[in-house]
C-alpha cells in the first residue's frame, strides 16, 4: 500500500493555482526580498518599500496568469503600484487569482537592519481572500496543535473575547506544557499596554516586537520556532496573509475589524471623523455597523480552496535567514512557500550570475 501522502498524491491533489503558480510565487517574493535587502539599514523605509514593490510587480508581470490585487499597498491614488484593484500578470492562460501582498512587511525593520522583515504574498481563486479594508484587526493566532486539541475538547475553544488566561490555558494544555513556558508575541504598542499586562499576569512569557506580527503568526504552526501565540491588533492585510498560511498549515486565526475607540486614546470627535471617512468604503465591501464586530475565523478570512503562500526573509527571522549578497548581484535568500495540497517548502535559493566568482557554499 502506498503511503497516502506521497509526493505523487500531493501533486495530484494540488489545484490549478498551486500547480501553475506555486513554484514561481517564491521567486516573486525572493526578488522583492533581494531588492529590499540592498536598502537594509539605510534608514529610508519608503525607498526600501518602493524597490521591493517594483521588483515584485516586474516579476508578477512576467507570469502567465490573470491576477487582481485585493490586498495591496493601498488605493490607486495613494499607491502607484500593487494598489487594490490592479491587474497583474500577462493575462495569458485561464488561471485567474486574487492576490494579497505585502512586498515589504516591516519597512522600519529593513530600514533599521532589525530582525523580522519579510516579503510576502498569497493567492487564491477569485473570492478566496477576505477583502480586508485598511483598518486594524484585533486577533489571536494559534497553531495546528491547538486546533487539534479544540476538536478533541469541544468545550475548550480559543475565543477572541475570553480572558487571556482562558485562551493561554487551552494553548498550554494543547502543547503539553505550562503557561510559564509559552511565548506570546505582540506588537510593542501603547494600545496593547493592558493586554501585555494581562498576558504577563498569566505567567506566560511575552515577546514584544517593534513591527511585523505576520511571520510570528505563521510560526505558531511551526514547532521549534519558539512562538506559541500571537495577540493584539495589527494590519488587516497582515491578518489575511497570516490566515492564508494558517489555512494551509491547519492553524487558527480569529480576527475582528477595529474601528477607532476611546480606548485607543482617540477623542469622540476623532472617532466620528474616522468612521465618516472609512464607513462608506467599508459598506461597499459588505461591512456595516451591524456586522463590523463579527469575529472572522480562518475560513472566513480565507475561504479559498486553492491557496498558495510564500514569504522570503530580508532581515533574520524566527526560521528564515537574512538575504546574503555576494557581489555582482548574486544573492542567497531563504523562503517558506506552501500550497493547499499540504506541501510546505523551506528553500535556500542561490542566484549566481558570475559562476566562477560565486562558488556554491553549504
Ligand atoms: C501592523 C502590523 C505589521 O505594521 O500593521 C503594523 O500588523 C502597523 O501598526 O506587521 P501601527 O500602526 O501600530 O504601527 C507592521 O508591524 C509592519 O507592517
Ligand atoms: Mg508593506
Ligand atoms: Mg506590513
TrEMBL record:
GO biological process: fructose 1,6-bisphosphate metabolic process; gluconeogenesis; glycerol metabolic process
Lineage top rank: taxon: Archaea
InterPro entries hit by this protein: FBPase_class-2/SBPase
Pfam families: FBPase_glpX (PF03320)
Molecular-function annotations in GO: fructose 1,6-bisphosphate 1-phosphatase activity; metal ion binding
Keywords noted in UniProt: Carbohydrate metabolism, Hydrolase, Manganese, Metal-binding
GO cellular component: cytosol
Family per record: Belongs to the FBPase class 2 family.
Protein's UniProt name: Fructose-1,6-bisphosphatase
Organism per entry: Methanococcoides methylutens MM1
Lineage of the organism: Archaea, Methanobacteriati, Methanobacteriota, Stenosarchaea group, Methanomicrobia
Amino acid at each position: 500500500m502506498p503511503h497516502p501522502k506521497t509526493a505523487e498524491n500531493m501533486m495530484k491533489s494540488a489545484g490549478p493555482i498551486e500547480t501553475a503558480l506555486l513554484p514561481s510565487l517564491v521567486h516573486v517574493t525572493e526578488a522583492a526580498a533581494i531588492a529590499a535587502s540592498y536598502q537594509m539599514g539605510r534608514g529610508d523605509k519608503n525607498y526600501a518599500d518602493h524597490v521591493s514593490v517594483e521588483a515584485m510587480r516586474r516579476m508578477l508581470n512576467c507570469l502567465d496568469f490573470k491576477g487582481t490585487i485585493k490586498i495591496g499597498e493601498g488605493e490607486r491614488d495613494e499607491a502607484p503600484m500593487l494598489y487594490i484593484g490592479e491587474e497583474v500578470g500577462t493575462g495569458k492562460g485561464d488561471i485567474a487569482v486574487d492576490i494579497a501582498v505585502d512586498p515589504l512587511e516591516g519597512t522600519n525593520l529593513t530600514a533599521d537592519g532589525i530582525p523580522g522583515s519579510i516579503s510576502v504574498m498569497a493567492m487564491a481563486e477569485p473570492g478566496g481572500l477576505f477583502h480586508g479594508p485598511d483598518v486594524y484587526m484585533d486577533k489571536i493566532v494559534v497553531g495546528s496543535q491547538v486546533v487539534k486539541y479544540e476538536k478533541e475538547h469541544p468545550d475548550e475553544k480559543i475565543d477572541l473575547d475570553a480572558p487571556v488566561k482562558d485562551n493561554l490555558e487551552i494553548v498550554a494544555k494543547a502543547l503539553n506544557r505550562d503557561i510559564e513556558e509559552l511565548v506570546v508575541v505582540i506588537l510593542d504598542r501603547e494600545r496593547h499596554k493592558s493586554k501585555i499586562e494581562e498576558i504577563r499576569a498569566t505567567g506566560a512569557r511575552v515577546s514584544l516586537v517593534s513591527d511585523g506580527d505576520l511571520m510570528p503568526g505563521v510560526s505558531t504552526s511551526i514547532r521549534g520556532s519558539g512562538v506559541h501565540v500571537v495577540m493584539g491588533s495589527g494590519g488587516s492585510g497582515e491578518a489575511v496573509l497570516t490566515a492564508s498560511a494558517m489555512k494551509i498549515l491547519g492553524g487558527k486565526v480569529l480576527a475582528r475589524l477595529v474601528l477607532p475607540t476611546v480606548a485607543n486614546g482617540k477623542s469622540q470627535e476623532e472617532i466620528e471623523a474616522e468612521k465618516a471617512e472609512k464607513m462608506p468604503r467599508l459598506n461597499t465591501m459588505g461591512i456595516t455597523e451591524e456586522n463590523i464586530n463579527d469575529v472572522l475565523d480562518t475560513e472566513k478570512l480565507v475561504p479559498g480552496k486553492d491557496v498558495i503562500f510564500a514569504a522570503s526573509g530580508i532581515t533574520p527571522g524566527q526560521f528564515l535567514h537574512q538575504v546574503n549578497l555576494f557581489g555582482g548581484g548574486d544573492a542567497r535568500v531563504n523562503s517558506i512557500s506552501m500550497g493547499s495540497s499540504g506541501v510546505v517548502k523551506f528553500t535556500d535559493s542561490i542566484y549566481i550570475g558570475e559562476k566562477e566568482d560565486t562558488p556554491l557554499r553549504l
